[in-house]
Amino acid sequence: MKNITKIGAVSALSLVIGASAAFAENIKIAFIDPLSGPFASTGTNGLHQFQFAADYMINQKGGVLGGTEFEVLGFDNKISPKESLIQLQVAIDQGVRYIVQGNSSGVANALTEAVDKHNRRNPDSRVLFLNYAAVDPALTNDKCNFWHFRFDANADIKMDAMTDVMAADEDLKKVYIIGQDYSFGKAVSAAANKFLSEKRPDIEIVGDELHPIGKVKDFTPYSRKIVASGAQAVITGNWGADMLGLGKSIVENGYTGPIYTYYAAGSGITAAFGESGKGVIRLVSEGQINPPASDEAAAYYNAFKEKYPDGNIDQSRISNTIGMLAQAIEAAGTADDVVKVAYELEGMTYDTIWGGQIMMRENDHQAIQDMHINEHTNEGVTFPYDGSEYGVVSIAKVEMASADSASTCEMKRP
């Protein structure tokens, strides 16, 4: 019996070693975003979108480099820059070479500096930071570095597209700007003031303020000021619970004009707004969800909903990030040498299933793509959000938005 037990133990050990070896061959991608706290629903849905994209687009089609699969690992940063740096090191220690993050530009600023420092000190374990949603313009301007790539349009690019639509409304005379008190909120305010003054100097900014991020429980005082100002349009970069709280409060306090937003869809927000958000909530985004841009996009969305019935594809840039990374790895012929992968990403053009083409600008690693202005509605919605009848429908498009915009990036390459 002792001999049998010993043989069984050796066999089991062999299986574990074999499984570990197979696991180690995967290309690991660390998702560092909030998976707990007030923004947990946003982070969890994002993680599911990344895991689905990796499986559906890459693994089910044979992987990359002759069969290597992508593996997306979730790391909860609790929306804290300090915690994000801890999770970054944990991920690197686990052999991760690709980091994805998007919720909070404050976190992104901390990560990009840490990645740059790590790569200078540790040339044998360099990592790439694939930013899918943190849109502080500084990240591809004064704070740019070779290891950071942004797959979302930055706050200035989005505001440029959004104010094109606003400027075309000749009746619009008063605008109120409100946002979260951190780098992104400040960037939204600066961009709104800049573009509105250039395109419609007759428009009056009747309010411009910031509030603590993730800490306001009752937005009534802010909403009452907005209504009292006589604003005919509101601009906000709020996201997560802050977007829902602010938007609901504004509407409930009697405001009926459009609210131009960056992140007012999915993660429970669309269902919560429901009828109250119809014709009021407007969202600037990349990619076209409704109507679907292609049969491939429709099939992708249906497959995602089958796996995650309560989830939403509210960030089409996530699948773009996975697709472009795979394309770069194939072209580089390696996933381990991230310098080669980075050089393949630079200047890359990519045909997205969500309509149009994406170009990763070489000089600053900023993705250039079509921008859509969407409206919250239950009419003409093929793919609603949050299990509701409501979704967002594209009402305007700016092709390859801000393709010729200037950048102050002075990138040092290895």
Report what the structure shows.
With 414 residues, the chain is an alpha/beta fold. The protein folds into two domains: 26-154 and 297-368, 3-Layer(aba) Sandwich (Rossmann fold), CATH 3.40.50.2300; 156-292 and 371-398, Response regulator (Rossmann fold). It is 40% helix and 19% strand. It contains twelve helices and 15 strands. The strands form three sheets. A seven-stranded mixed sheet has the order 7-6-8-9-10-14-15, with helices on both faces. Strand 11 and strand 12 (357-360) form a beta hairpin. Helix 7 crosses helix 8 (240-252). The longest helix has 24 residues, at 2-25. It starts with a helix and ends in a 16-residue tail after the last strand.
- Give the count of structural domains: 2
Unreliable stretches covering 5 or more consecutive residues: 1-24
Order of helices and strands: HEHEHEHEEHEHEHEHEHEHHHEEEEE
End-to-end distance, in Å?
Answer: 60 Å
Total helical segments: 12
Q: What integer value in Å does the Rg equal? A: 22 Å
Widest beta sheet: strand line-up: 7-6-8-9-10-14-15
What would the principal axes of the Cα set say about the shape? globular
Q: Tell me the number of strands.
A: 15
Report the CATH topology name of the largest domain: Rossmann fold
Helix percentage: 40-55%
Give the DSSP E fraction (strand runs of 2 or more residues).
Answer: 15-25%
Q: Which CATH architecture of the largest domain is right? A: 3-Layer(aba) Sandwich
Largest sheet: 7 strands, mixed
> Assembly state here?
single chain
CATH superfamily of the largest domain: Response regulator
